[in-house]
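Predict the structure of DNA ligase (ATP).
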Amino acid sequence: MKIATYNINNINTRLDVLLRWLEEANPDIVCLQELKCERNKFPEQKLKEVGYNAIWKGQKSWNGVAILAKSEIKELQDDLPGEDEEFTHSRYIEAFIDGIVIACIYLPNGNPWPGPKFDYKLRWFQRLADHARDLVARELPVILIGDYNVMPTDLDTYKPEKYVNNALFRPEIKKAYRELVDQGWTDAVRTLYPNEPIYTFWDYMRNAYERNAGLRLDHFLLNKAVAKRLKMAEVDKHVRGWEHASDHAPVWIELADNNLPEKKNTEKPEQQVQRETQTAQPKGTGDWQTLLAAAPKANMPAKPQPMKATLVREPFDDPGWLYEIKWDGYRALAVVENNQAELISRNNISFDQFHPITDALGKWNANTIIDGEIVVLNADGKSDFSAIQNWQRRKDGQLVYNVFDILWYEGRDLRELPLTERKAILEAVLPADETIKLSKAFDVNGIEFFQAAEKAGIEGIMAKKADSAYTAGDRSKEWLKVKVERRQEVVIGAFTRNAGTEKLFSALAIGVYEKGVLRYIGKVGTGWSEKKQKEMMAQFEPLITEVCPFDVEPDVDEPSQFRPRRLGAKPFWLKPELVCEVNIAEITSDGKVRQASFKGMRSDKNPKDVIIEVPADTTATVAKMDETSELIITKTNRKKAMNKTIKPEASFLDPEKDSQTVKVNGCPLTFNHLSKVYWPEDGITKRDMFNYYDQVAEYMVPYLKDRPMSLNRFPNGIHGPSFYQKNVKDKVPDCMATMPHTNDKGEEKEYLVATNKASLLWMVSLGCIEINPWFSRVQSPGNPDFCVIDLDPDKQHFDQVISAAQEVKRVLDTIGVTAYPKTSGSTGMHIYIPLGAKYTYDQSQLFAKIIVSLVHKQIPEYTSLERMVKNRGGKMYLDFLQNRPDATIAGVYSLRPKPGATVSMPLTWDEVKPGLTMKDFTIHNAIQRLKETGDLFKGVLGEGIDLMAVIQKAQSAF
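Done. Here is the predicted structure for DNA ligase (ATP).
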């Protein structure tokens, strides 16, 4: 049974968030606090529609509590016993559900202290303690759930020193809570995580949940009749990142059907002393200690970055290389310090959801940084990527952290040591744990190792130079990765055609034979050219039949996680006589292919012989290799890392100076106050901002060159006042270009015209965090180079923005228009359509209006064409009016004045799918991404569409 608590902080304002979380988490019982609605305005019907009964006590002010349950609810109490003349609000209800007494609590905040509200809080707490004393000894299970507004210990807050005079931290409140628990209650979360910082509440405007920096205000107290059934507890802190979510995150516990066996304490006395005194005692003695002593002393790196490998086409065998399994999971650095651990992604995002790994690492009495891959192993011992994506929700499979490198250990920087020496140290110090595994390297024939990985169904292999240092930044050619493409022969049972498509067919329905019948295993919708489609269609036409060849007729238009809307796909059944070969990522647990791609027809295969190809057992294969091919370090001609250096990312500014003048494109530019923090939550300075724009200039300048600029200035960082400056007359250096312009109000202005990197950096020196170029150039100021559709959400989650962008693409695909998406870097998306400066702003705006009108017609439930915010009803604005003279939006590759220092980043359409977030692209990773992808936006400055032909096509298509 799953029981949750959630301080919703206004149920009607955040109803969409609540309903979304209920669908995702599927709890059996939920306690809600801070309803902020009167009794007659509680959304009972909406909750019933998703399967939840409810009781509640609503109130107009900040209080109000409710209990939701899938089962019948029998109300027992609608308030605490006792009376109080002051500050009486709806804060407590109690019910009997599925054999358990459930109490929903909202304890008053009590601020300011000292004062009458704090005194009332103490009195209210006393009433709770008196009532709890009657409940705790009952034979029935009882759980007191809710927002207690109390911090039991300093472990329950990120920075206790910030709250010296806050009522939440007063010793009187802590004492009252402790006395309540001492009646015989079990604090569920703290019991399961006795030494962990667990937070449930975060500063409303700062994304502190991403840094695991908050408070624990929400608690579950269990009496003895139910405490032994406590199985697990979690905080769904990712919900805090949803748009318009509460400042609290949902918290839940899971109860087993019966009492669980008591866990035995296997910790030895010396281990307990070691943990409590936090002393690090390395394992054993031996050569690894000599290797460690040779490494330079250094402080722990503040922002470690992983070493990245270069993808190569084929496996190879060469002396001096070691070979490892390429795991199919999430790459993560683990920072272990003072008996606490954090897993950090390659994009510097914390993997807090994989707490069994951080729990295990936190018990490691060492300070270190290691590198590895988080995987989920299925029953066959194979890493299952789909399982790791759903692990937090389903907990299916064995969670393992495969560790393959070590960067820093107990004051020693190991990154300059050769790989073989780092491996020796890692193997010596890595603790033995079923969740933490050493990923071994093998000194074997690389081609044979690849072939073994291919037979075992492993994603691929890694090849690493045995004497390579650990270098972050660009992709190293001392680490190479070789991927395995899994192939499967399949029988073609049908082709499908989506509604409204002009293609000969949209996808193939494929199957394999099993016990003499053809079983459907999914669809393949990519991998052929238009010419190949015609060739295939010639083969299909003689075989079209009215009879479905599969044993069970499949739903070929079935929605999926990433395509929730049906496409109107119609099947054309074929006699099962054609065989083709496809590439697949995997065959899922329900027997369907994932990420299938057509590779070619197979005329040499009898369809009846086509069955699912079962790879050899991974565990057995690897175990055999372990026996014969263990890595033995015997070579002596290794380069020592002391002769190598790790080069930092180049900076055009002196890191020691707070003000300096630098010539850029021959233009002297002065940069002041370089240490000023512009993004305070992230510690990002003006110097960081200048360095970013210096590095991104080669990609960004083509989209700025010859364009008038609107300067959006933030002289004191993202939280300081900002203002637009368009007129730069007599304010620009002599080396800058300008353009006189009279705007639509008749105002005479002189705009800066960007010409090169110097123009960009001069704007940034004025505090222009984001860069706002015109859509047109000075050579043709009335003719934009592109048309822009701006998806501007209000109350929508970003996944809905994604859905709207996909709808825009479907409309544009239908009329043969290529478009280029990018994140706005703030909340929405921008979709660019190249025009080639052949049309006016009015024509561009008219075209954009046609497109968004067609899109709105498809998804009217959450989009709007209303310009006035008050008339949109909280819906997403499909903005076409940006296509006008003088209007600007944040340019491509621009930083945004938002926490996290997000970047407006171009995307491939394959990336435009649910799960994408703005924080995937930041000042920290944008340059590395560009080095990998190149400029995805080049087509925006291309020849442009034939607007008249496209509009005619749209009129006929719709």
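The chain has 21 helices and 44 strands.
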